[in-house]
Amino acid sequence: xxxxxxxxxxxxxxxxxxxxxxxxxxxTEQHGPTGLLGTDALCAEGIALRVGEExxxxxxxxxxxxxxxxxxxxxxxxxxxxxxxxxxxxxxxQSLAWHGFERFLFINGHGGNLxxxxxxxxxxxxxxxxxxxxxxxDLRLKVxxxxxxxxxxxxxxxxxxxxxxxxxxxxxxxxxRALFPDHIKTAPLDPPVAPSAAFHDSxxxxxxxxxxxxxxxxxxxxxxxxxxxxxAAVPALAAAYRSLLQEP
Length: 248
Ligand code: NI
Hints:
The protein is of the alpha/beta class. It has eight helices and four strands; from the N terminus they run αβαβαβαβαααα. A four-stranded parallel beta sheet has the order 2-1-3-4, with helices on both faces. Helix 3 crosses helix 4 (114-132) and helix 5 (150-160) packs antiparallel against helix 8. The structure holds nickel (II) ion (NI).
């Protein structure tokens, strides 16, 4: 259930039976010469909606711009600074918590968001403790990357081995090709497998990874792979959501 397609009375009646909500979070950043700028947000949202169907969960609006500072040397990338993203996450959680939501599963599509998401969770807990003390709502905030389940990791390894890479991965490009088959792009990839190297800031990133990819060969990605990766990702995320609801 997509929150944006419900009416307020429908959310009110959902809250009679559940206090759980899923929040997709991604990024709008370069994904190599053939990857969509929205890859991380589109993967998180597409998979979160399927998890919502599987688990009967409400899915909040996607936080579609994340912490992508290191990708800023490529046109089209949009970033929030970490401190802004903390505030965005805090305001989304506090809005939903005000209505009665207590158990939050963030389904994340961008590894670079993780430290900031975790910082945001502690900011929320610290603020609740400081302002509400023992009366603070018992919020449970959890984040999982869509690729965290063992099944989806195994499938990525089986399909691509080490050519899956670390950024603009074959797996994530395959998921967008399944979700948006009308937006498949082709371009020469040279070298076929991109270099893998650490970087400091956005200029250094572009110097070391001139076409934006890190360690990946997204030419291997097909829509059919994407459908399989989505099907492999959903059960672990739905199980994590159910255990979050059942947690004492
Ligand atoms: Ni990505």
